[in-house]
Specification:
single chain; 256 residues; alpha/beta; Arc Repressor Mutant, subunit A; Rossmann fold; 2 domains; 7-stranded parallel beta sheet; 3-stranded antiparallel beta sheet; 38% helix; globular
Length: 256
């Protein structure tokens, strides 16, 4: 097992069991206690868990943030299917806004066949991936770079977005609830996504089903503000029931 794979396995184990000792983790993953301590120190340094004397605790707060490097590895199949379905909604000549989410980033390869797109993004990795295609007009928002999410935020990013209009915005967040709406970890990210919604004709929300029914710290918008919700099929909830629940606020559900 590669070091990063082991760290992710450690993290998932701690999240599942809420807490674990170094000794138990060493036995579980056939690693030395010194190796486990280094792994836990690395994960704690990335704010993914909290170190304790002899072990670690899971972070469960509404403000706990998952770095981009970890988010890219989570729910890969679902995010890839969601990204492909979302990209199919794009038409030649569109002006798009892509946020800094890992799911929006996965849309980039699926846009390669489109023509004459103009794309605005606050995602550093999305801007670089789009630049590699060498076929679209790509605008970065500028602003303050958040190193954990590799996203640009702040007044300059807001001013930039408010000076343009777009056909569609594709975005994702940490949590989605029919009652509480779209929520996110960062207040700055939430504010920027509200600006994106204000400037776009159509709002397409990219949501892997693990986020359904969850709530995070900062409010972005009510469910009724969305035009389209693209999601993988949620376990334990009939698709018809979800579609019916979204019909009242006027949201089109697209399951992949």
């Amino acid at each position: 097992m590669l070091p990063e794979e082991r760290r992710q396995a450690l993290l998932e184990y701690i999240r599942t069991h809420r807490a674990a000792t170094v000794e138990a983790l060493a036995r579980r993953f056939f690693a030395s206690e010194a190796t486990v301590r280094r792994d836990l120190a690395d994960l704690a340094g990335r704010r993914l868990l909290r170190r304790t004397h002899g072990g670690a605790l899971a972070l469960e707060g509404l403000e706990s943030e998952i770095p981009m490097s970890v988010r890219e590895a989570e729910n890969r199949r679902a995010k890839e299917a969601i990204a492909a379905a979302a990209a199919a909604r794009v038409r030649d000549g569109d002006v798009l806004v892509l946020d800094s989410s890992s799911t929006a980033l996965r849309m980039v390869p699926h846009l390669a066949a489109r023509q004459d797109l103009t794309i605005l993004t606050n995602g550093a990795k999305a801007a670089l991936a789009l630049a590699e295609l060498r076929r679209f007009r790509v605008y970065g928002t500028g602003g303050i770079l958040r190193d954990n999410s590799l996203s640009f935020v702040g007044p300059r990013a807001l001013d930039f977005l408010r000076s343009f209009h777009a056909d569609r915005v594709f975005f994702s967040t940490r949590a989605f609830s029919l009652e509480k709406g779209v929520t996110d970890v960062s207040e700055e990210e939430a504010e920027l996504r509200r600006a994106m919604l204000d400037q776009a004709r159509e709002a397409v929300y990219l949501c892997d089903s693990s986020k359904l029914g969850t709530v995070s710290f900062s409010f972005v918008c009510p469910a009724s503000r969305l035009d389209v919700l693209v999601m993988d099929r949620p376990a334990g909830l009939p698709a018809d029931a979800l579609a019916e629940a979204l019909r009242a606020p006027g949201v089109r559900l697209e399951l992949v």
